[in-house]
Amino acid sequence: MIEGITREEFQNALQGIIKSELAILMTEKKSQFITRNEACKKLRISIPSLDKLIHQGKLTASRINGRILIKNDDIEKALTEIPVRMKRKR
User: Most buried pick, 9, 12, 35, 75, via CB within 10 A?
Assistant: First the structure.
């Protein structure tokens, strides 16, 4: 038992700490995920091609707050793992 502080004061202090920590985590999470458009720009592919990679399981997408987001680390990994086919000039 904590002495010198009421239960309500303790709860309020704890809620404040939790809210500030969650705000920090949410900011970090946002920077870890990118939108489909940002992913397409990094990979230099179209949205349908990105969707195909997601459906094939080569990339993992998450729906967060109604938006489809992809982990930035997965995009970086895909840049090194997914083979690129070059179009031949005729």
Answer: 75
Is residue 26 within 8 Å of residue 34, measured between CB atoms?
A: no
Q: Tell me, yes or no, whether 2 lies in a domain.
A: no
Tens-binned pLDDT, residue by residue, of the chain (90 aa): 567 888 899 999 999 999 888 777 766 555 688 999 999 999 889 999 999 999 998 898 998 888 899 988 888 888 877 666 666 676
C-alpha separations of 8 from 4, 11, 21 in Å: 12, 5, 20
Residue 81 CB contacts under 8 Å (≥ 6 apart), including other chains: 58
Q: Is the residue at 39 inside a domain?
A: yes
Q: What is the number of domains present in the chain?
A: 1
Q: Is residue 87 part of a domain?
A: no
**Is 86 a member of any domain?**
no
| Residue 24 near residue 31 (C-beta atoms within 8 A) | no
Residue 53: Cβ within 10 Å count: 19
